[in-house]
Amino acid sequence: MTILTIIDAIDRWGMKEPDRPVYIENNRTYTYGELKRDSDAIAAYLHKNIEQSRPVVVYGELEFEMLACFLGASKAGHAYIPIEAHTPQERVEMILEVADPAVIFAVKEWPKMKTTATIVSLEEMAEICKTSSTLETPLKPVIGSQTYYIIFTSGTTGVPKGVQISHDNLLSFVNWELTDFGVTEGMRFLSQAPYSFDLSVMDVYPALASGGSLTPMRKEVINDFKQLFTVLPNLEIEVWVSTPSFMDICLMEPTFDGEHVESLKIFLFCGEELPKATAQKLLERFPKAHIFNTYGPTEATVAVSGVEITQEILDGYDRVPIGQVKKDTNIYIMNDEQEVPAGEVGEIVIAGPSVSKGYLHNPEKTAEAFFEYKGQPAYRTGDAGKLKEGMLVYDGRIDFQVKLHGYRIELEDIDHHLAGVSYVKQAAVVPKYQQHKVQQLVAFVVANPHEFEKEFKLTKAIKEELSATVMDYMIPQKFIYVEQLPLTANGKIDRKGLMNEVNPT
Ligand code: AMP
Fold first, then answer.
1. For 237-260, what is each residue's pLDDT tens digit?
2. Is the pTM of this model over 0.90?
3. Could you say which of 128, 171, 204, 323 has the lowest number of CB atoms within 10 Å?
4. 383 touches ligand 1 (CB under 6 Å)
5. How many domains does the chain contain in total?
């Protein structure tokens, strides 16, 4: 199954079979007909009122209205930017400053924040969706190299970077997922990743393009084990999309297996390393399902390589391999602009049609990471890896980016914001690993003079202040107070030294 344009592929279900379910919540099922009607209305509103060149922000969690806004924006020719409702205000402000959106669709209540954008509340959206309107000029949907969505990721300078994904970037990804992973028409997908994390694109677009449905799993359920394990077997999900970290939580429930959750047919993992133990356990628990490890950065549209996990694969590698690259894309292993000899470790460079045009309004960072290679747009991932008979093997990062529970974090981003906390003079954050996986973020802090009697009170105050500027998953779990930070020979903070201190071999 392949598609030609994202919007037509989704809309055909709304026209052909308006009653087909698209979004299934506990007590409410939304249909493709409703998705088409609402997104058409939102598109008409944007078309009439908003300048086409500017992006729109969609603010909320996993609500149906988020999907209607995404699609409405695309139909009216706007790139959309998903922002999770839990994002700290200062971070949202930084995103708004970079993106300069024309409209903010506030599916969740918009925090009182200064912006020149028009805020459209949920109630106003409902009104927009009620009024059908005729257009004087036809809509011009996002197409070709025009930007379809922008996802903001952690940036080393403390300012988030907006990865621009075009319609054709997305098309290349969706067609690959629809072809290579056994997805068939009308499957039920788990929707667990926040829309601001590009892992969500792995469920949303392949599901919608193939007439499938999304079953959201909200934060409240995920954070409450009892609820999670009561809910999970009854969702009848067929395609599972998550980080390995979320799967590790689910595997804690002994009845999470093919016997009790019969519906599960396909597992797709991405976003962080799939630990061998997790893969092994899954293989045993779901012997009839197909389990895939996929790999890729947001900058190359979700994922570019994948492999089905079999016992043979697990026995053949020390670390679970990250797979074969998709057909339209090339992987090069490079060192200082040169390809390294076959089998050697170097930086993974991705070249192909799903590579982004770069970071929004950030030519400097774009030039550092994006270039053209052998006639294709290429991206330096910062990941180390090697190719062994066409199979890509991951070998960690070559910089200070980490993944914690699948979330991408630049350690320098946290340092920057920690240094802005009033109690902190200087700080460096390092990861503590267990079997290649980050277990904890540890902050080494030189504190300013303070009046706290106990260190834990100082830590509490620092965490509180830090939470105003960084996502909750970026707040270090452990704080170590030092007189000064160690420096390298050329006077930089010796982060590698600190890493070795936290991770003794
Ligand atoms: P993100 O842009 O949030 O998707 O993060 C991309 C980064 O996550 C990659 O550059 C890798 O460092 C890491 N990553 C993604 N998938 C995998 C995987 N299957 N195995 C190991 N690391 C992964």
1. 999 999 999 999 999 999 999 999
2. yes
3. 128
4. yes
5. 3
